[in-house]
Structures are given as C-alpha cells and as structure tokens.
Amino acid sequence: MLKDFEKSKPEDKEIVSTQIREMRDELFSYLQGLKEKKLPVLVLVEGWAAAGKGSLIKELISEIDPRFYNVITPPITPEREARYPFLYSYATAIPENGKIIFLDSGWVESLVRARLRLEITQEEYKRRIRQINEFERQLRDGGYLVLKLFLHIDREEQAERMERLCEKAETAWRVTDDDLWQQREYRHFLKCYDEVLEKTDEAVHWHILDGKKRKTAVRDALKLMTGKIKSALEKERYVGDPFREEFPLVKMPLLSEVDLSPAIEEEEYKKELKKLQNRLSELHYEIYMRRIPVVIGYEGWDAAGKGGNIRRVAYPLDPRGFDVHPIASPEPHELNRHFLWRFWTRLPRSGHISIFDRTWYGRVMVERLEGFCSEKDWKRAYNEINEFERQLTEWGAVVLKFWIHIDKDTQLARFNDRQNTPEKQWKITDEDWRNREKWDLYEEAVNDMIRKTSTENAPWYIIESNDKKYARLRTLRIIIKALEDACSHAFERQLG
Amino acid sequence: MLKDFEKSKPEDKEIVSTQIREMRDELFSYLQGLKEKKLPVLVLVEGWAAAGKGSLIKELISEIDPRFYNVITPPITPEREARYPFLYSYATAIPENGKIIFLDSGWVESLVRARLRLEITQEEYKRRIRQINEFERQLRDGGYLVLKLFLHIDREEQAERMERLCEKAETAWRVTDDDLWQQREYRHFLKCYDEVLEKTDEAVHWHILDGKKRKTAVRDALKLMTGKIKSALEKERYVGDPFREEFPLVKMPLLSEVDLSPAIEEEEYKKELKKLQNRLSELHYEIYMRRIPVVIGYEGWDAAGKGGNIRRVAYPLDPRGFDVHPIASPEPHELNRHFLWRFWTRLPRSGHISIFDRTWYGRVMVERLEGFCSEKDWKRAYNEINEFERQLTEWGAVVLKFWIHIDKDTQLARFNDRQNTPEKQWKITDEDWRNREKWDLYEEAVNDMIRKTSTENAPWYIIESNDKKYARLRTLRIIIKALEDACSHAFERQLG
C-alpha cells in the first residue's frame, strides 16, 4: 500500500484553498444532522513521525463546534500496555452517538512499535491483526462510521523535517528518541506499516494521504470525511449482517436436560465451603503475582441465587484485588455507544478479578426479547461476544461464565418467600413477575446463547441451584480449577 | 492521637464474634434504606503497613450485596501523582448516592509518604492538610457520610508481622520496599501520622482502631458504621451551612456598569487575530514543556458568542494538548455525586489545557434560579468553588474565567437572526427564550457570582462581546498574558 504509493501531482494552491473552504462549509452543514441521526464517527489518523498528524487534525477540527468532537491521543503508558488487552485504549475511547472522535495515532502505531521492538511474538502479531479487523468490523456493523487515514512521507522528507525541528531549542524537544529510531530504521518501519495496512484493509479501507503536500492532504481528508458523512446521513443507519466464524464449541445440554436434584447437607457444606474459600484465597495472591486477569460472568434466572453465590466467591478474596460489577440497564452515556463498551471499560487490570453480576449477554436475552435492539443486532452479537471473549483469553485472561439454574417451581417458591418476608421485599419487583411470564421465551434464548457461545476458551457452566449451597460449592470448585490451570500454564504462556 | 492511644482490654472472643454477627445483620438491614434515601458513604481506611487494612475491609463487606459497595485502592502511580492535583485520585473516586465506597488508604497515606520522602516543601505540606479539611467538609456539607478509620499497631507488632510474611515465599512478596522503609523509620512515621491525624480531625473525626486485636477492630468498625448510617438515615439528609472564608478578592464592576461599545475593524481584527494565535501556539508548546496545567472556563449570556470565541482560542492549539468540555445538564451518574465531581474528572493533565464551555458556576446560576439545588447548597457553593479553584492554582494551574457579556438588545437581534437562518436554527431553543425572560434574575445571580468568586488567583474577566471580534481578541490577549506570566514563574515556583 505504501510502497507503490504514487505521489500526487502539484496543484494550484489557490484552488486547493478554495476547495478546503468549501468543504469545511459542507462539513459544518452536516454536524446537526450527525447529532440528530445519532451517527458516531471515528477518524483514525496514523502516519510517520513528523508527517504532520497533529496539524492535519487541527485543520480538520477548525470549523467544528467543540460539542461535536474530541481529539484523543491514546495514553499509551507502559502500565496500560502491560496490564490491559491490546485494544483496550481504543475500545474504551470510541465516540458516543452524534460525536466525532479523532484518534491521533492508534492501533497501527501501537502494533508496529511493539513488533519492531520485538516485544511480541510473530504469533501474537498475527493475532493482533485479526483483533484489529474484528474491532473495526464490529464498529462498522454497529453503525459507526470509521475513517482510516495514513499520512505518508518518505525517508528524506522525514529526515529534513526532523533536522529542522532539531535546529531550534524551542522545537528540538518535540523529536523524541522513538522518532529518531524510526528515522534510522525507516526501511523496517516501511515494511511493517505496509504489511499492517495491507492486512487491516478488510472491514474498513485505508486512505493514504501524501504528507508532503500539507494543503492537499487537508483537502483530501476533508473530502473523504464530508463524503462519507454525507452518504451515511442519507442512508438508514448501517446495521451489519450476522457474521459467522466457526469457533470451536463445547457441546452443551439444553436447560431442560439438566438434572436439578443435586444437593448437599449443611454439615458437609460448611466444611467444604471453608476449605474451598481458603484455597481460593491462596490462589488470589498467586494470580496477582503472576498478573493473570480473571473475568467471571454470572447470569441466571431471577431468584436463582446469583447474589449469594457471588458473595461466597468474593468473601475470601483480597478486596484490593477484585471488583463486583452489578450490571443494570445501561445509563444514557452507555446506551449511546457500542453495547460492549460498558464492559470494556470495566475490565480488570492484569492480576485482578472482575465479577459481573449480569453481563454482556443481556444483548441476546433481555435486549432480544424486549426488542431493545434489532434482530440483526442480537443475531450478530453471538459472534461479536465470541470475538470479545477470545480477545480476553488471548490477552491471558481466565474467562468463566455461569448460568445459575433453577426450575420454575423453585423460582415461584422463592418469589413468594421474598414477597412475604419484609426484609426481602426489595429484592422482588413487578418486573420479576413479568419476566417470569416469559419463562419459555427466555428458556429458548438461553438455550441459543449457551449453544452458540460455549467456546472452548470461555465455556458456559450451567450451575444447578435448586440447592443454593450445592451451587456455591460447584462455582467455587470451577473457579479454583480454572485458576490452578492458569497458574500452572502462565509461565509457559509468557515464554510464547 | 496515636501517641496517647490506649490499647483496649482483652475481651471474650465468643462475645465479640456474636457482636460482629449482630452488627452485620444490623448493617444489612440498613442497605435498602441507604439506596432509598440516596445516602452516599465513604469509608476511609488508613493505617500502618501490615496492620490489616485489607482484612478489615474484607470483614466489613462480607455481608453487603455487591450492588451497594465498591472497594477502591487509589491507583497512586507516579504519573498520577505528578500530573494531577493532590486530591484528584480521591475526589474522582467518591461514591454515588446510595453507595458505599471503601478506600484502602487515601490522602493520609499519600501525604505522609510524600512528606517523609521529602518530595514536598513544608509549605506544600501545610497546604495539603488544609486541602484535606476542605475536601472533607465539602463532602460532609454535601450530605456525604464520611467515616475515617486508622488501624494502629506498634513497631514491635509490625516487625513481627512482616517477619512472619517474609518467612514464606508465597507471602514474602507482599512486603514491599516501602513497607520495610516504614518499619525502619517507624518513629518518624508515627510522628507524621500523628500530626496529620491531629490536623485533619476537623470536619470529620478520626477513629483509631487497635490493629493488634483483629476481631475487636472489626467489631468496632462495624459498630461505627452501623451507628453512623443509622443516625444518618433517621435524619433528613445533611446539608451544610454556608461556610465563609475570606478570600482575597478583586474588585469587579456590576454588569450594568460595563461599557459594551468597544469594537474593532475587520482589517485590523484579521491581522491581530493571526498574530495572537501564532503567539498562543508558541506558548502552548511552552506550557506543555513546563508541565503547566491550564483551566479556562467560559460562561456568558445565550448567543453572546462563547462558541466562536472558544473556536478562535482552540484553533492555534495542538489538538493533542487540549480538550474542550461542553457542559450540558448533568447525566444521572453525575447528578448522583457532589456537584464538583464532573469537573474534577475533566481536569487536564499537567501541561494540557481544558476549556470548559459552561462550568461549575452552573450551581450559582441555573441551579440557583431553577431550584435544582437548595438555597443552602448554592449559597455554600461560592466558597466551595473558591476552594476548588485555589486547589487548582496551588497545584500550579492557570485558572481563567470569562463572562462573555452582551446587552439585551444584542441578544434579541442574534436570537432573531438564528431563528431566521435555517443553518443556525439548531442553535436556538425554547429554553433560550425562556431564559431570556429571566434576564434580570440572571443578572443578579451573575453579579453575585462575579463579586464573590473573583479571587486573586482565579479572577473573572468580563468580556465585552457586543462586537464578537473585539471579544475574541481580548480573551486571546488575556490568555496569552496569563500563560506568559505562568511560564516565567514556573521555574521559581518549582524551586519552592
């Protein structure tokens, strides 16, 4: 893509300036529509050091009311790179509906540098390219307008610019050691940029701009922006078709096939609980030391015993090393973004545990059944979730998902108990009764979900919870087993 | 406080255990009320290394449903400490209404370490103590229940515990170099903790717990929590009286006294604008290099020209180094916290510029006039804002506040223009017309605000904007002057 890039012909400066003015006016005229149609726009500006990314963005935003955009320079600190998944800084920075985000460097820069610094294996490099394509496709399918620009200059131009900056004390500090390294290794960077651009030209295409000609680059970028925004506003908001990748799946039973009779005696429960909690406590320190992130998702019928189960798991954990995230219906600023955004922002740091009390699977249960999203949306979500969870496990996370299962009679008994016990009344709402009426529809949705998202890397566990005590011991055992496995494989993993 | 701490007498273990169980039940019974009465609770747990802060918190949360609490270990990274105000990590971590936040170490730990590491001057140390008292009072006055616990052990006990941890490979890593330093310098830490506790016993009192007796410490902490929550739930939500500190104020004219005739010719405007923008662009790099944070707040009449003014200021800035924050009415998660929270979370890193299009002064204008807060709330806010802004300038920030001023006729002309120009119609709403009817009330509120919050460190500038071009040049000149001054004083400042 870069190697065979043809420099553009010289153009009349006056004409280009006029075009820029016209295009700015045009862009300006779309902004209100952007807001009304709730179109989110992500403009990724990548390119060589000293190619003028900052100046380009400055020109692009100059006529835009600040209410409509933000410029983000993703904070790539060593802490962030080391302790969160590769795409974390970008997935948490996506625009909300009706807003434009300009990203000043993004996943390409981050990937190319990690690769050339030899921080990642060839295998991880390939995985990250795949993750980028997944990320961009998910945004596109979710109605995001993504525009990818690469500002290109050749080695000589870059050398000249850096020299000029270095001549004066006021500007010399702007040339970093990293920039000088890029200049020395231009040839390797070129090869790597080229390859990454080539391989990420899938869901969203790249646009290479000639960084040597600042004005025409601005004009070309504005032209692309206005053109894409215009056509996005003219059409219905884009909704992607379900994308199907074959994930290796674990065969799971239907809910109706699960034997709910397992139970345990009080005496044995107490003894076992203590033993398991002690073991989990030890393991918590071990995963902290080994920097293994852990993501545990709970779903289940109302009154199945999620809360009590979570409390028994959380009790032995060091409170400095875990979080429980109760997931209610999304707040407005969450609703205004991709449905996975509010889970990306709640991921644990490496070495920490995040427990989700209800999860991203709301998409294929309540949102599906209540019509909070379109049919295409929830049908697409199985794959999107599988991709999301694969990205987590590739990062090194342990991902566990529990369906806390009871039968309809048990639910009724527990509902009645809640209704009749003053201290428990807050736990039962009209909505719980309404959901109960839709039991069969939910059962169908849950069966679909479990069947389609029980991947080998992040399987579902159906937890028999007619006896809550039995259920608690079972989740504890599953967690302990998973953490033990992860600890014993962590070192091998890191060796690559 | 610590020096004369009397160890508690030995107690019967069985009795203490029973008391813990009872208190847990009691605490549990208040949780729903906490939510209903929207009471936010902040439990700060400070104390010696190895005193058992983590275990104490673990016991406190063990019966609480995760929906009601979060444990936060403030991420004190060097980046955060160096680039944000002292209280940033805590002010951004306060609970929302109806939730409990447990802070595992907080401002005391941070201050004592900075002091003993000799990272701050004696003067800065005193300022931070004052800031802590301001912060705690503001929370208390805003209806927060703040509970401050200090877990105390003596030098021998600490030594023993650390030795025990160091004996085994599985636990040795938990003793950090910092902990060992504390053990060696126990005497100095004791003196400093003692002093800080003594001096921050103002708005919210300290409770010292005997860390040697784990069970009684848990019992005592639970007793305090339940007692305080109980009495907070029984009373009306606490609202503090206006607190008055004499801030050195700049004398300001009334709005009606401002001469709005200044204007400028197009020709001269263009020339000057370019010159000033170039200068601002240079200065932006300089404040970036010198790590000076800049906070610019815009308020003004509807249609006064805030947006265009901000655009002219933003245009010459490097987009990587500034943000514009348009402030609309608060979202639910913002409304559920102290009114300054959504501004704390939007502060710039040092070396960056944050421009606020409308600000925290909404409290004493729209919230006052529309009754969105109580009279005590907005009357208290002048002082709270002065304290907030002083904390910013003490951190090293340049804080500038512009009131973009026009007269009533000019507003009417601009409203009509907006109404009659299709591309501008989105800028005018019914609310604008309604606000216009309340011009006189607003004028009174603005006069109060400008008079009470024009502190020497963060004065208001009334910008004559009947001629928008004149106004733009004037704000640019004020910003340039302030940044030049800050740059020339920055080095002296850092020397102390």
The number of helices of chain A is 21
The global form of chain A is globular
Protein chains sharing the most extensive interface: A-B, 47 and 45 residues
Biggest β-sheet description of chain A: 5 strands, parallel
CATH topology category name of the largest domain in chain A: Rossmann fold
Task: Tell how many strands the DSSP assignment of chain A holds.
Answer: 10
Mean pLDDT figure of chain A: 94
- Oligomeric state of shown chains: homodimer
CATH superfamily of the largest domain in chain A: P-loop containing nucleotide triphosphate hydrolases
- Rg over alpha carbons of chain A: 26 Å
Low-confidence stretches of chain A: none
Estimated share of beta-strand residues of chain A:
5-15%
Structural class, from helix and strand content of chain A?
alpha/beta
- CATH class category name of the largest domain in chain A: Alpha Beta
Please give the alpha-carbon distance between the first and last residues of chain A.
Answer: 30 Å
How many structural units, i.e. domains of chain A?
2
Give the strand order, joined by hyphens, for the main sheet of chain A: 2-3-1-4-5
Approximately how much helix is present in the residues of chain A? 40-55%
Q: Based on the structure given, which CATH architecture of the largest domain in chain A is correct?
A: 3-Layer(aba) Sandwich
